[in-house]
Queue: 2 jobs
Job 1
Amino acid sequence: MKKPLLIAIALVLSFTGFSQSEFQLGLQLSPNISWLNPDSEGATSEGSSFGFSYGIIGDFNIADNYAFSTGITLLNMGGKLSYPDAPKVNQPISNGRTEANIRMKYVQIPLTLKLKTNQIGYMKYYGQFGLAASINYDSKADTDFRNPGDSSIFSKSDVDFGDEINLFRGSLIVGLGAEYNLSGNTSILIGLTFDNGFTNILSGKSYASDGSGNAIGEKNKDFKSINNSIVLNIGVLF
């Protein structure tokens, strides 16, 4: 994924025709905690995952206290999910339940508005809100399938999960933060954002669930989930 990042650098640098007071370019590293919120029969969230993103940010200062903030980041996020399943485990097909620790990678472009205070000492404080568009380019999972018939567990690591993940993810971004001015236009920023997904990240179909959460019938139920994350943003603007 070096090519998308290099293209982003070229695109953002093309805006340097703006004066420094109008445009700031920066780098950002953002660890996150993410989780899944399923909306499918028999599917449940089984916990959160740690991930991170990194990339380029750009602030277009459209007024003294307002900035349009965008950029491009490579985003890693995921979550743990269990759902009714009936894979081929040897023979015949077994009806049971799978728990998956899913790891997803996206190219994300945020489109947000920053509302900034006047400078207080060396600090400016801001609120941030907007949208983000993300494109999935890799998804893997560690899976444990439980067969209720004999209580056996079949585990797999680094399973390609791409066929179960939708290409596009849309989300709402809401956050707070601060910028500490070092010198001139150079500032360190730190903030906290909530990345609230609002599109279904799962594709395909799932099984109906019996009273114990195991698969029954045909694989014809909608497989749905959104995912959310809390993100710590650490960066520098020039």
Job 2
Amino acid sequence: MRTRLEKWERYRARAKDLSELAGLASDDPRLETEVAAGVAELAEEVAHATLEAQLSGPYDERNAVVAISAGVGGTDAADWAEMLVRMYLRWAERRGFKAELLETTPGDEAGFRSATLTVEGDYAYGYLKTERGTHRLVRISPFDFQKRRQTSFALVDPTPEVESDTEVEVRPEDLRIDTYRATGAGGQNVNKTETAVRITHLPSGIVVACQNERSQLQNKETAMKILRARLLERKVREQEEAQAKERGELRSADWGSQIRSYVLHPYTLVKDHRTQLEIGDPTRVLDGDIDPFIEAALSLPVAASGEAGTAPAQPR
């Protein structure tokens, strides 16, 4: 809180300085240009800080663990999941965040059946929680020799990173740990020894897997990190549901609807179905420019509470 207050005090001080300079800039074109640049820079920083001020959830300022899985659409859906992974990696790069691809399960022909990445940066989870839900892609399929239009779905499920092992209790007796041979390209041990790890949390039914690391121990550590994050998210959702019940609110359980559509054919458009925000340049969005959607979603109470569809939708 102190950091936030100090930030706004610095903005006020800069605004005062720019105001005083503006009074002297009427006869100095160079100073006038300098003031205009300073005002534009300050306005951008204030807009960013205003957005951060809306992130008041107990875990909003944490790093995020983002799971992306292919839904309906076969090979196209797997390819779409990989496109989304790239989109979030590029978004993190634009933000100056650190992103790492933790685990991937390749599709049968292309793309990812599932992937998990971490995004480290201030309020990473607060921003990315608005992306939770089903994302729909409409395009001419590059995998269809008849060049027919294909609709694909992928699920995006961000969770806050657990800061300590004691924050979420995981009892050894509640876990079933299976090992198997990793698939795909890798080092000498890949496909020869059982380095891949799958962990099932028996009470919740949550299953996580990791096969990207070279050793079974490293894969187990990564899988446990993902499991703890998902258990923490489950705890958050249960708390929100209990609070909603106490307030007597009726909340939507419309898990099957997509939150956003990306249309590449027969026209180009990205539309968020919660905020109705539309952008006519899908290339720009898929290159990581998703801040307009995040900002619009943060203004919605349903987005602020982290609710959105969480299951791949059926094609209509």
